[in-house]
Amino acid sequence: QINLMESGGGSGQPGGSLRLSCAPSQFNCMGWFRQTPGKEREGVATINADGITNYADSVKGRFTISKDNAKNVLVLQMSSLKPEDTAMYYCAAHFFCLGGNRPPRLVEGEFVYWGQGTQVTVSS
CA–CA separation, 46 vs 104, rounded Å? Predict the structure, then answer.
């Protein structure tokens, strides 16, 4: 059984930063998704084994996804936070990306393993 564990959620102020982590990270395809009450889960950022990344337009230039192989964690560095970033954030993983060498798609169905989620709240 594979259990993904997120950490680092919490409260942040508009314009501030938060860092989310997810372990373990030995998967070839990983990503972050988020969900707010009453809405479908949406892709935030994904990364494949070659470090190719993909971002939702809403977070481009503000969020960075990366893998710290030494620590075996997936990281989402969130900067310039906005109130609309408030959501439950989920780590997702699969042993391979369906798109091969293309940027991994922000599609929930392409990931098999999921964490329990960590809440991020952005408010002043």
Answer: 6
